[in-house]
């Protein structure tokens, strides 16, 4: 089992990043790949969780140990797999998640991709009161950069990869047309809109 990886960030896609360490390029699934945009070709430290399946060995990566802890708590719930947990962690500020769990707000929890009523209830049952010592903010501030709407396209692709529906994203994309943000900022803003 891996705790973290240190190496050079060599590639960003809508679904994952690639970190080169010891001459090997590791594919790491992350909640918001574009939050690493300002670190391309730089040395990074990514906290890891490894999932081993019959057909694949998968790595999931996080900016901080705290973000990883939120992910680990989520996958401990019956019915929540790693990709679903990643989609939940992708919400920039997880205070809403914690409040919903502690207040048994099933409706809010059901807004996450692939979370039905039964799984939402299980989240409340298993996790209420468990986040007390876990700071949950992503804590990744980035500078606004000049960009084109390619960034909007990249953001929508990343949200689709997290499990959000194309119909939901079509409205959000229309809302942002004509704006000028980084892909990471589009993802953060879109997630906040999706959770309202």
From TrEMBL:
Annotated family: Belongs to the RuvA family.
Subunit structure: Homotetramer. Forms an RuvA(8)-RuvB(12)-Holliday junction (HJ) complex. HJ DNA is sandwiched between 2 RuvA tetramers; dsDNA enters through RuvA and exits via RuvB. An RuvB hexamer assembles on each DNA strand where it exits the tetramer. Each RuvB hexamer is contacted by two RuvA subunits (via domain III) on 2 adjacent RuvB subunits; this complex drives branch migration. In the full resolvosome a probable DNA-RuvA(4)-RuvB(12)-RuvC(2) complex forms which resolves the HJ.
Domain notes: Has three domains with a flexible linker between the domains II and III and assumes an 'L' shape. Domain III is highly mobile and contacts RuvB.
Domain Helix-hairpin-helix DNA-binding motif class residue range list: 72-91, 107-126
Protein's UniProt name: Holliday junction branch migration complex subunit RuvA
Annotated region described as Domain III, given as residue ranges: 147-196
Assigned keywords, A-Z: ATP-binding, Cytoplasm, DNA damage, DNA recombination, DNA repair, DNA-binding, Helicase, Hydrolase, Nucleotide-binding
Lineage: Bacteria, Bacillati, Bacillota, Bacilli, Lactobacillales
Source organism of the structure: Streptococcus loxodontisalivarius
HAMAP family for this protein: DNA_HJ_migration_RuvA
Function: The RuvA-RuvB-RuvC complex processes Holliday junction (HJ) DNA during genetic recombination and DNA repair, while the RuvA-RuvB complex plays an important role in the rescue of blocked DNA replication forks via replication fork reversal (RFR). RuvA specifically binds to HJ cruciform DNA, conferring on it an open structure. The RuvB hexamer acts as an ATP-dependent pump, pulling dsDNA into and through the RuvAB complex. HJ branch migration allows RuvC to scan DNA until it finds its consensus sequence, where it cleaves and resolves the cruciform DNA.
Extent of the signal sequence: none
